[in-house]
Design goal:
The structure holds two protein chains of two kinds.
Chain A: H1 2-11, H2 20-26, H3 28-46, H4 54-79, H5 87-103, H6 108-132, H7 137-159, E1 164-166, H8 170-176, E2 179-180, E3 183-184, H9 185-203, H10 205-215, H11 217-222, H12 227-253, E4 255-257, H13 264-274, H14 287-307, H15 314-331
Antiparallel strand pairs in A: 1-4, 2-3
Chain B: H1 2-22, E1 37-42, H2 49-64, E2 68-73, H3 78-90, E3 95-98, H4 106-113, E4 120-123, E5 131-135, H5 137-156, E6 162-167, H6 173-189, E7 198-202, H7 207-219, E8 227-231, H8 234-246, E9 253-256, E10 272-277, H9 283-296, E11 312-314, E12 317-320, H10 321-324, H11 330-339, H12 346-350
Parallel strand pairs in B: 1-2, 1-3, 3-4, 4-5, 5-11, 6-7, 6-8, 8-9, 9-10
Antiparallel strand pairs in B: 10-12
Helix pairs in contact in B: 2-9, 2-11, 3-4, 5-6, 7-8
The chains are: A mainly alpha, B alpha/beta.
Chain lengths: ~350, ~350
């Protein structure tokens, strides 16, 4: 991967000198921040003040909180240069495991512990393949995606009825619907997790190591950073985040379907890429940008919902935003910018 | 890299300032409304044109009645269905119709709608507290199975080499009723087909998606020639027929589908011997005529929330391919349905076997 990147860098435009004002508009987070402002402005123009009403923010916040949370953890793997495609089916199998445990009379805390432990085991298998055996991350995690999707089917089939596993838990339901300062608690938690991730990535040695490993693993190794350890940790974090997401979905929905988490990986990575991450280039992106990417998509979808425009246009908008993000990345020099 | 760590907070400050300016006048809920407002949550699975058509028909009828109308797509996703419930409540819908392909979310949806006192009509998948409008899936499955059984009896003396089930497990109980019902219907006519002749594959209800699994199944039974196919819907059954065609083994394969999605038009597969029309696009006629109109008039009908005792029953219409050729395709049916006198159903207009 490093060789490919090195070749790519030879063709990249020359580095652009950093300028504080220009950075606000063209930086990976600055541009998505501006995009969010544009979306909010569009919402206020098209929908009116109710676009920013407490109830509307609550609806969008509850919907987007779990993907933001999963994305905040999965982004560590992207930063470390290893994309984890299994996060969607990991969330699905996590939901299926905790659902099966709850319907079999387990208490919530041990059930959560076992579910997260299982996800960490799956993360370990990903790490073993990618770090231990140098497997291609896309191929390895695609295998995990497929395997866990099948496992979700098996578990739901075994413990559920007619394709659904009803696992309503009063405490978990109350938690996922709890409000704080007029906003959904899990949305605030997702934002807090993003803020902590931003601090780790931007202000700590660990964060610098993760970005260094993703940006140029050979150089990072020469600098004494354990590439294997960083990537293993990142993959475990990714699995852990997906596991948490699955548990929260059970709280929100009170049930698990065989399709829970299906396609979630694309939803998450599209938002992260719009927010400035790259699934092929490690070391690129920032957690705040990723979260803003989710908010931009959620905001655009909400405008369509409330204005009566066909919801089928959401994917058109997501695709256009992705293309715009890629073009902006190229315009500012791609790798050279970093 | 350094600039990257500084810019998030600067950008956020810019965004927050702009948002504060733009968001002045932080509003509360939707303004009070005068007209009756109907919400419609379409299934949103890109597999099926009828899901979009269900919304088109509901919108047209709502407009005929002078109602406000809001349509959202469930995207075949439970979390999205839950989000949509919140939007319907926020937007002050007086009643909601939904087709939710992910019924695991129905109890959570019911918990959202009940406190808001919004009556909900559910298509085809029952939920306590939601008015049930839909087909008797089991009856439709049995009818299709019997029709296919009669063909097998006549052509093969009830001795097929294989009976293939195109399952769609994600549809849950609906799959059991339709696909299982077709098997049971076929067994009524041909009770002595040995157990080892009955095989299944996961079609996911889609011709293209189910194709690889169908090819694998046929490859595992290289000697099978006389093959009958039942399934969740026309798309799933076509997956097996298309696989047989690709492998050059379609000479003696006969399928009978469900839902009638691929049995009309110019390009009907000759091996699809028949299907069961539900006229899915026209469900809104039943829902509005038998439930929503009464709610709009202030006299909500008694709750009937089971498939056995529905608020409005959609009649299944089993048809052979020859009979189906006389039925207009879906866009034409939608047009004719909306031109018909209010309350006229697609079954009354188009079913050749009434």
């Amino acid at each position: 991967m490093t060789d490919t990147l090195a070749t790519g860098r030879q063709d990249a435009p020359p580095p652009i000198a950093h300028h504080p004002v220009r950075e606000v508009f063209t930086g990976p987070v600055g541009s998505i921040g501006i995009t969010l402002v544009i979306v909010i402005a569009a919402g206020l123009i098209v929908i009116g003040p109710r676009f920013l009403s407490a109830s509307n923010i609550t609806i969008a916040g509850q919907f987007v909180a779990i993907p933001i949370l999963i994305g905040a953890f999965a982004a560590f793997a992207l930063l470390a240069g290893v994309v984890d495609l299994s996060i969607g089916s990991m969330a699905g199998v996590s939901a299926a495991i905790i659902g099966a445990l709850l319907v079999n009379g387990w208490e919530i805390w041990p059930a959560m512990a076992i579910t997260l432990a299982a996800c960490l085991v799956f993360g370990c298998i990903n790490a073993l393949a990618i770090v231990g055996f140098n497997a291609d991350p896309i191929a390895a995690t695609l295998g995990m995606l497929t395997g866990l999707r099948g496992a979700t089917y098996v578990i739901v089939e075994a413990f559920g009825q007619s394709g659904s596993l009803f696992a309503f838990h009063e405490g978990l339901f109350a938690f996922t619907n709890m409000m704080a300062w007029s906003l959904p608690l899990i949305f605030l938690i997702a934002l807090c997790v993003t803020a902590v991730a931003a601090l780790i990535v931007g202000k700590t040695r660990l964060g610098r190591h993760v970005r260094a490993v993703g940006g140029d693993p050979l150089a990072a190794a020469r600098a004494g950073i354990s590439v294997a350890r960083v990537r293993t940790g990142a993959l475990l974090l990714s699995a852990f985040g997906a596991g948490i997401g699955g548990i929260l979905y059970v709280g929100q929905l009170g049930a698990v379907s065989r399709l829970l988490g299906f396609g979630l990986e694309f939803q998450v990575y599209a938002a992260l890429m719009i927010g400035g991450y790259s699934i092929l280039r490690g070391g690129v992106g920032a957690p705040v940008g990723g979260a803003l990417g989710f908010l931009v998509i959620a905001g655009a979808a909400n405008i369509l919902d409330l204005s009566g425009i066909s919801p089928y246009y959401v994917n058109v908008i997501v695709g256009a935003l992705l293309l715009a993000a890629v073009l902006l990345d190229r315009l500012r020099g791609g790798d050279a910018y970093e | 890299m350094e600039g990257q760590t500084r810019s998030p907070f600067r950008s956020l400050a810019v965004a927050a300032a702009a948002t504060t300016v733009l968001g002045a006048g932080y509003a509360t809920d939707a303004a009070a409304q005068d007209k009756f407002k109907l919400g419609m949550a379409v299934g949103g699975n890109p597999c099926c044109e009828w899901m979009k058509a269900q919304g088109d028909v509901a919108r047209a009828i709502a407009e005929q009645r002078g109602w406000d109308y809001i349509e959202l797509s469930n995207n075949d996703d439970a979390a999205t269905a839950l989000k949509n419930a919140g939007i319907f409540i926020q937007e002050g819908a007086d009643a909601v119709i939904q087709f939710n392909g992910q019924p695991s979310a129905n109890p959570a949806l019911a918990q959202r709608f009940a406190p808001a006192n919004i009556p909900v009509v559910t298509y085809d998948i029952a939920q306590p507290g939601f008015y049930f409008v839909g087909i008797d899936n089991l009856a439709a499955g049995l009818a299709g199975g019997e029709a296919l059984g009669n063909i097998i009896k006549e052509k093969w003396n009830c001795e097929p080499d294989l009976v293939i089930s195109a399952e769609g497990a994600a549809a849950g109980i609906v799959n059991e009723w339709r696909t299982g019902g077709m098997r049971d219907g076929l067994k009524k006519v041909c009770p002595d087909i040995p157990a080892e002749k009955w095989v299944s594959f996961e079609s996911q209800g889609q011709a293209t998606v189910g194709l690889p699994a169908a090819r694998d199944l046929l490859a595992a039974h290289p000697d099978a020639k006389k093959m009958a196919v039942v399934g969740l819907n026309d798309g799933g059954v076509l997956a097996a027929i298309n696989a047989a065609e690709q492998l050059g083994r379609a000479d003696e394969i006969i399928g009978w589908g469900q839902d009638g999605a691929f049995i009309t038009g110019d390009n009907v597969n000759p091996h699809l011997a028949g299907s069961v029309f539900y006229f899915l696009e026209g469900y809104a006629v039943y829902a509005i005529r038998d439930v929503i109109d009464a709610i709009a008039a202030g006299n909500p009908p008694p709750m009937k929330d089971t498939a056995g005792d529905p608020a409005s029953r959609v009649e299944p219409c089993p048809v052979s391919a020859e009979e189906a050729a006389k039925v207009p395709d879906m866009p034409e049916r939608v047009k004719l349905l909306l031109e018909a006198p209010p309350g006229t159903t697609a079954y009354e207009l188009f079913c050749p076997n009434k």
